[in-house]
Amino acid sequence: MAFTIAIDGPAAAGKGTISRAVAAHFGFAHLDTGLLYRAVGRKMLDGVDPIRAAQELLPADLQVQGLRTAAVGQAASRVAAIPEVRAALLDFQRAFARRDGGAVLDGRDIGTVICPEAEAKLFVTASAEVRARRRFEELVAGGAETDFETVLAETRERDHRDATRADAPLKPAQDAQMIDTSELDVEAAVAAAISAVEARSLEHVKG
Ligand code: CDP
What we know:
Low-confidence stretches: none
Bound molecules: cytidine-5'-diphosphate
Largest sheet: 5 strands, parallel
């Protein structure tokens, strides 16, 4: 049986951590769709045409080191605005969403475009400052040399580009449940996400 949990939201809102924990909790498969765009962005930085890169993307391309850097994040959001790139990645994501046994997908357009029929839709946010602080700490822990102001500016730039593009812009689905993690630690954010999914699945069972 298919059961899709769509988790969307802006950069560094905590979608990755929440999605992995929610998938483990329900025993569902997890797909970080941002990684697809990061892999295409990486290829563009290497000089490959992004549309071609998306059409020919292989599982091994997702294993490449360094996909989480800020430079690759910016490249990802640039290629993500190209409709042909998004189209090339659509079928794989849709098939993953409806696989047997349940799936959690995190991204920007899962509840709106990839899987509008998802049984549960969450939109995870936090203030730009809180998100930039988390991303800054992540980058520094990974050995990057950067400062908070740069990360904050990059976070805002990427959110703006993602929210204003014409094709599949970042926005909550009409029936999404909002989770603001600004004041929540990881444990509390995960608990909030799990109860939101449980509330929806009860409604679903009741019809
Ligand atoms: O982890 P973080 O939130 O920083 O970014 P990500 O989820 O890895 O996504 C990187 C970029 O890919 C985003 O800024 C979006 O431009 C793009 N993306 C998208 O357009 N649609 C998705 N479903 C997932 C990511």
